[in-house]
Amino acid sequence: MRRVVFNQKGGVGKSSITVNLAAISASQGKKTLVVDLDPQCNATQYLLGEAAEFSRDKPELSPNIGQFFAKTLQVKEREKPLSEYVHKTPFANLFVIPSNPELGEIEHLLESKHKIFKLSAALRELGNTYDAIYIDTPPAFNFYTLSALIAAQRCLIPFDCDAFSRRALYTLLENLGEARADHNPELEVEGIVVNQFQARASLPVKLVEELRAEGLPIVSSHLSSSVIMKESHEKSQPLVYLAPKHKLTEEYVALFRELNPA
User: Which pLDDT value is given to residue 181?
Assistant: First the structure.
């Protein structure tokens, strides 16, 4: 199953949801791949820690997804299969294709050369190598997010409960509908994941109830806010490994089970 985690709004937990669902998948014995398309490289650093950090004196991790896309622009060179860009993580059954902070520099070239289907074709070529593939995306509707939507079978939408997010949600759903109609009829909006949910606050509860009443596909399993997530990021350990009995971890497991019924 190929899933993309997407929202045009930043700060809604795309990378956290991507990595933690993938980690639960891997912890259950499924060979799982994370594809990081966000130039901020959050999912990559979450999984690989210091090995993925870059600076003026330290280049980004290689090979990476930016190099994969750049290779598609070089007509005279043979394109390498996407499998050659995969890195092992410290966690059993969990793999990652790192992002690249320079993705934005080649985006206009990729668009002009009509490379929008390259990622989809490459992931399909992986065949049955992975039981599950999770794609993390940048907070924008651009070449890379559209590539991910074309490559995916299902889309998860992280949502934090505020009025601005609600307005953006309607635009996002319209964009998803266009992507499905124009490029990928296989794409299914799997659900809207309510993140940083405060069950005792009236406004978030009211907002979620209103969205559900409108017929939007709100996933039943909500994710609460907790400082354990920041610790998880700092230690580069997904929750299922860092704190398997924590409330937030259990919420993630419940979400995973809801999305992957036995």
Answer: 97
Q: Which of 96, 1, 83 has the alpha carbon at shortest distance from 44? A: 96
Is residue 58 predicted with pLDDT exceeding 80? no
Determine how β-strand 188-195 pairs with β-strand 154-160.
parallel
Q: Which domains does the chain have, with CATH numbers?
A: 2-259 (3.40.50.300)
Query: Smallest Cα–Cα separation from 253: which of 236, 234, 233, 238?
Result: 238
Of 226, 222, 198, 214, nearest to 166 by C-alpha is 214
CA atoms within 13 A on the CB side of 95: 20
Whole-number pLDDT of residue 40: 93
d(Cα 173, Cα 178) in Å, to the nearest integer?
9
Q: CA-CA distance, 253 to 196, in Å (whole number)?
A: 16
Please report the beta strands in the chain, taking only residues with DSSP state E, as ranges in sequence order: 2-5, 32-36, 87-88, 94-97, 132-136, 154-160, 188-195
The model's pTM: 0.95
Please write the tens of the pLDDT for every residue from 84-125.
Answer: 999 999 999 999 999 999 899 999 999 999 999 999 999 999
